[in-house]
Structures are given as structure tokens and as C-alpha cells.
């Protein structure tokens, strides 16, 4: 899983980078085989003026599924990272489960079609054998 963490309008500290990497790892490793790339953009919207302006934009690029894009804005950047990664993890699990359900339904429908086609072929053979 390739992780790219970017800081906009401020310097990214080692502790903030490590926190972001740890939270991404905790939230996304359960389904990491589906993830191609993760891009996290951290920004301070208002700069030194303060306020609820610490923004975390998270994009999880998946193989064969639409991307997951989560955004969160908080007073504290650590909280924004925590919330965004948690939501991304829940969304990822939900998408993967849905994909597995759809694949299982398709396989089941395909098997039923094969069984029906085979039974139909048997009936046709019996019918032509009697004639």
C-alpha cells in the first residue's frame, strides 16, 4: 500500500506524519489487498488566525472499485486525521463486503443457470431418444 502524506500551508512534523501513518495503518490494513494508493492532504485553511480550520482530505484508490474520498475539518489536526481515517476504514470494509456479496450473487446465479441448462439438456435428450 503506497501512502503519500502532503502538507499544505504548513510544515509537516515527524510526529504528525507518524500519527497519520499509524492511523492509516490501523484503519486500512484489514483490506489492504484492495488498496493501490492512499493520498492524505493536510492543510491549515485559516493559517495563524486559528479556528476550526485544520483540514484532512483522504483519498483511497482501490483496485476495481471506486475511490474512497473522505474530508474532515476540525480545530485540531490530529482529531481530523483520526476521524477521516476511521471513516475511510468503515467505508472500505462496507465496499469490500458489498463487492463480495455481489460476486457471490453472480456466482450463485451462474451456477443456477448451469444446473438449469444441464437439466434442460437432459430433458431434450430424453425427449429425442423417445422419438
Task: Give a written overview of the molecule.
Pfam families: Ribosomal_S30AE (PF02482). It comes from hydrothermal vent metagenome. The protein has 131 residues and is an alpha+beta fold. It has a single domain, classed as Ribosome hibernation promotion factor-like (Double Stranded RNA Binding Domain), CATH 3.30.160.100. 53% of the residues lie in helices and 25% in strands. It is built from two helices and four strands. It has helices spanning 14-28, 77-130, and strands spanning 2-8, 35-44, 54-62, 68-74. A four-stranded mixed β-sheet has the order 1-2-3-4, with helices on one face. The N and C termini lie far apart (64 Å).
Question: Layout of SSEs?
Answer:
Elements: E1 2-8, H1 14-28, E2 35-44, E3 54-62, E4 68-74, H2 77-130
Parallel strand pairs: 1-2
Antiparallel strand pairs: 2-3, 3-4
Helix pairs in contact: 1-2
* Unreliable sequence segments: none
Radius of gyration, in angstroms, nearest whole number:
24 Å
Q: Supply the number of structural domains.
A: 1
The rough form would be described as: rod-shaped
Strand content: 25-35%
User: What is the CATH architecture term?
Assistant: 2-Layer Sandwich
The largest sheet, given as strand count, sense and whether it forms a barrel, is: 4 strands, mixed
CATH class: Alpha Beta
Strand tally, please? Answer: 4
Strand order of the largest sheet: 1-2-3-4
Helix/strand order, N-terminal first? EHEEEH
Q: Would you tell me the structural class of the helices and strands?
A: alpha+beta
Amino-to-carboxy terminus distance: 64 Å
